[in-house]
Amino acid sequence: MRVASLASFYRENLRWLGAGFALSFFSSFGQTFFISLFAGDIRAAYGLSDGGWGALYTAATLCSAAVLFQAGALADRIRLDRLAVTVLLLYALAAIAMATGQGIAVLLVAVFGLRICGQGMMGHISATAMGRWFRAHRGRAVAFAALGFSTGEAVLPSIAVAVASTVGWRETWWIVAALLALGAAPLLGWLLAEARAPQGSGADGGHPGLGGRHWTRPEVMRHRLFWGLVPAVLAPSFIGTVLFFHQVHISEVKGWSLAAMAAGYPVYAGLTITASLTGGALVDRLGPARLLPVFLLPMGAGAMLLGAVEGVGGWLLVLALTGLSQGMAQALWGGLWPELYGTRHLGAVRAMATTAMVFSTAAGPGITGLLIDAGIPFPEQGLALGIAALAICGLGLLLGREIRRLGGR
């Protein structure tokens, strides 16, 4: 795509791309990188160990995954503006629970609400909308929407740490609640009020997948290719989540200040953005399957390095490598599910993949937290995570060939 036509694409579709960006950005408050900034305060307030906090986080996230499996299909049946506003108001209530809660039960409910609304539904609505509204330039649309994730990761940690140190961690969650209810909800209600019909779509407004048809969720679940892709879905979420979830623990083990570590988030976000935009262009040009064998290579290398590096500069390198993989993953999955299974039931299909992703983010803190309690610091766990990532790259090579054999790209 020429520069002029690319600029025209962004200009003409700014409303819809902006909606995807905003949904992704406001998901940040339910993402692990944000919640984990308050891990030390939460553990102190509730008397939790690393393993106890990890177990609670795992339980809340598992519950959110179970609900998301069914709730994700709402994106196929309810207008996205109404769905997004409803989710945002529930999201704000969860933030209020974080600000006011006193018992473990309330903390569990608060984390569940943040995870299902933020990490789960906000990102799910964004990716579903981009996959449904765009066809020829779907990779670029998904990549642009994913800039919201990266922007949140770049700017919110430093702001949150500064605000919490000034007004307190509970008061910070009051600010989050107000931002969601009074800022995000009206904005997204307006942006999503007008849907977009993709160019070249059929009379039903959809684009079919493999075999020239729109796959239903039961059909996808019986398809061997979907289950072959599950490890590649799980890996970036698992590794990325535990890396951020245990950042306070890492700072204690390595002797790094949390403020110095937070300064690495712009590096992470910048490379995530670069990889996402580059990956989106490659998805449009070559097809999403081409990314399967390579997208986890940087993250695997970063996980292996974590145990070896000594200075905080090593943390920046780990974040940089992780960002490269996360950016490619955003472009890959945003383009692959519509390519394989069509767009008519995209909300239901994506809900399965998103549920698997959320499940991995639930299992990660619990498993690694228990290993920490057993005397294995998280940085030393990085070698096993890196080997697993490299093995999944080998599987991705085989899966990419199978996708092309079946007529996909």
UniProtKB/TrEMBL annotation:
Q: Does the keyword Transmembrane helix apply?
A: yes
Keywords per UniProt? Membrane, Transmembrane, Transmembrane helix
Q: Where are the transmembrane segments?
A: 16-39, 51-71, 83-100, 106-129, 141-167, 173-193, 225-245, 265-283, 290-309, 315-336, 348-371, 383-400
What residue ranges carry the coiled-coil annotation?
none
PROSITE patterns to which the protein is assigned, alphabetical: MFS
Tell me which domain of life the UniProt entry assigns to the organism this sequence originates from: Bacteria
Q: Which residues form the Major facilitator superfamily (MFS) profile domain?
A: 16-404
Name this polypeptide is given: MFS transporter
* Organism expressing this protein natively: Paralimibaculum aggregatum
